[in-house]
Amino acid sequence: MFAGPQQQTHPTASSSLTENMQHVHQEAMPAVGPRPGQSVNLTPQINGRLIQKRYKLKYKKLRKVTKQMLFMNAALCDEVVKGEERVTRAKEERKFLLKKLFQYQALSDATAHPSSRPHPTATPGFANPQIVPRISVQELLGFEGSKLGVKAKKKEVKKKSAPEATISVAPPSDTLETKKKTRSPITKLVQPLPSDSSGRPIFPIEFGGLTVHSIGEIVTDRPNFHSVEHIYPVGFCSTRVYARMTNPDEKCMYTCNISDGQDGPLFEISPDDNPTLRLSAHTASECHLTMLNAINKAKNWEVVEAKGKGPEFFGFSHPTIQNLIQSCPGAKKCNSYRWIKFEVWRPEYGEITVPSENDASINFDVLKKSPGFKAAALKNQASSASADAGLRLLLARQTEDQLQ
Q: Model-level pTM?
């Protein structure tokens, strides 16, 4: 009786329970698949994934391209820097070659003079003997012809000594003056200097006790900044070791400068032990003379001849330094300056000797060995010995008085 209804009611309860569980499960977890009665649409998800993959590929490609561009940019920058260095080097070489060209051109202009003299005999057909055309024998006959011309001149000289010599015409006075003016330039030897890649010398330059730190710049618009023998560039700086002005027995470093004094160059010498002391003058020799007088006064004896030699003490008359100054831009505009021909020293020439470096007023070692310095030292020793003898006499007298 009870089995039938129980079996009928049990399935309904279990089915409702399972439906409730499925409903709760559906609310808690989203449905993976489509619900019954709905159509499946997976195209947006697939399209999104494909778009992401495409952008990732594009991103990777852009990264590669940017890296390549960075490398290319760095390489181009390096090439640009190298090109600029080459351009600057070429400019410096061009300037250096132009300086040398102007220097040789000036030397050639200085050495250029008429190669032939006026003919000693009067030339018929010319009323004025001074207006005779000057044509060199070498231009007319060449090398062999020049030899013949020399022989002909010798014969003419013999004819002059004979009593039947032809009437000779004296050479014009203008030609004699020009020959006196156009002297051949003096040749001096210069030391080879270390230089950088552009050919410029490396400073400082040392020559024994002299050290040149800067050449300076040539002033071309004022004539007082150069003379016949020297050029005074503004900014020239050198140092030299010499006797101390307060105590000549000790060494001292002197700094020599050339500055702009408006009307002309201003030369200054200052000792390193007293930088506030500056010996200045409008000529280098006057400045050097003031220093020598101070040394003689401190020694109370004429240890060195009071004769200023400023160019040698400053160092701008040294052949190597003078060659550098002469090669600076603007040197050709110094009209009063007489150009000097320099030649680079070679081992076969022997040792280079600069006469100024063996002068007691320039070199400290030579000053210590000079007769005046030795005489002053002997005088000081004698005075100290006499002072000691006087002190001994006083002490002896005092002891005698005490004993009595």
A: 0.52
Q: CA neighbours within 13 Å on the CB side: how many for 245? A: 19
pLDDT, tens digit, 9 for 90 and up, residues 83-106: 998 998 898 888 888 877 877 777
- 3-class state of residue 162 by DSSP: coil
Q: What amino acid occupies position 27? A: E
Q: How many CB atoms lie within 10 A of CB 278?
A: 13
Q: Report which DSSP code applies to 369.
A: T
Q: What is the dihedral of CA 150, 154, 159, 165, to 10 degrees?
A: 60
Backbone angles phi and psi of 202, in degrees to 5:
-95, 125
Three-state DSSP class for 183? Answer: coil
pLDDT at 192 over 80: yes
Residue 321's Cβ-count burial label (10 Å; 0-12, 13-18, 19+) is buried
The total number of residues shown for the chain amounts to 404
Give 216's contacts (C-beta < 8 A, 6+ positions apart).
233, 234, 235, 236, 237, 258
Could you give the CA distance from residue 267 to residue 285 in angstroms, rounded to a whole number?
9
Kindly report the backbone phi and psi dihedral angles of residue 222, in degrees, each rounded to the nearest multiple of 5, phi listed first.
-130, 125
Phi, psi of 243 (to 5 degrees): -70, 145
